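Morning F.,

Quick status update on the modeling queue. The single chain you submitted on Monday has been processed. Sequence for confirmation:
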Amino acid sequence: MALVVGSPVSGTVVGLAGVSDPVFSTAMVGPGTAVDPVRAPGEVCAPIAGVLRKLKPHAFIVVSDDGHGVLVHLGIDTVRLDGEGFRLIATEGDWVAAGEPIVGWDPAAVAGQGLSPICPVIALDATDGALSERSQPGPVEAGEPLFSWS
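Structure tokens below.
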């Protein structure tokens, strides 16, 4: 059965080609997609159910019970903000449900710092062929499917 990966934020699906960082746009870390978030304060949600294996203010990884890891990166080069403008809601090691809030942030504030708030959503250790039912570019609400991973 395929794992459905949901959007962690509301915004516009732009795909990895829309990401300015080649680490993501060339799928070096894995295939997936990206969402350009709505420019309003909000919460970033878990794209799948699982254990929150890594949690940084600007990025997190959730690993499903069957070992599929999904990376959500909040903006490009946002590690330089050293956590400023991000609020951790969950704790590393927590089991989280799909759609559960993980981090609070303000994409407009990230953009105001001269950084892109675009959010890559990456299937770690996956092959491109393992992903299907990819969302086409366009509007997406948090929790709506971005792709299936089998």
